[in-house]
Specification:
- This protein is an alpha+beta fold.
- The chain contains five helices and nine strands; from the N terminus they run αβββααβββαβαββ.
- The strands form two sheets. A five-stranded mixed β-sheet has the order 1-9-8-5-6, with no helix packed on it. The protein has a four-stranded antiparallel β-sheet with strand order 2-3-4-7.
- β5 and β6 form a beta hairpin.
- The longest helix has 29 residues.
Amino acid sequence: MNKKKIIICMICTIVLIGVYVAAVCYQSYTYPAPLLERVHSGEVITFDEYDYKVVESGFVPEKDVERFWENDIESFGEVRVLYVKLQFQRIAEKTENSKIIQMSDFTLVSDTYNQAADLERFSYFNSPEELIKTHNNIGDSKEICLVFTIPKVQFTDKQWEDMKVADYRIHISRYPVIKEIQL
């Protein structure tokens, strides 16, 4: 009887492993790993109807961080704020199926960290004139400043001290092709 239970357990284990392997194969076949297209700051990358280019990036000076992020500093402790001036230019005619660019389309990423833009402070770094500027015609361009708040609590002390702008990238698209700009 004991031998029979061992055989049944082995068969069940083999069946479960087979189902797991089949699920992984199906998932990998149906949703393959994304392709990666990367350019560096100052270079152009194309996605949908626009050309994108990072024209400037860096950390916001401490005095401005203390002024604009006072409440976050009280909640999270020390923060660093990375700004990215992103220029985009329409390269195709606008249609009724054209995508509307939203700030949530852009993500700050590194090998171990990602962050969405800080929409609460977006207006501090962008002029109203630039924000209301339309980009409906081919050749129309716009420049916005994306702001990313990075709290120290999400890093070890060594990572925090070694942090530099060049560690980060901006994702313009995520799947099926990751389009990113290295800062």
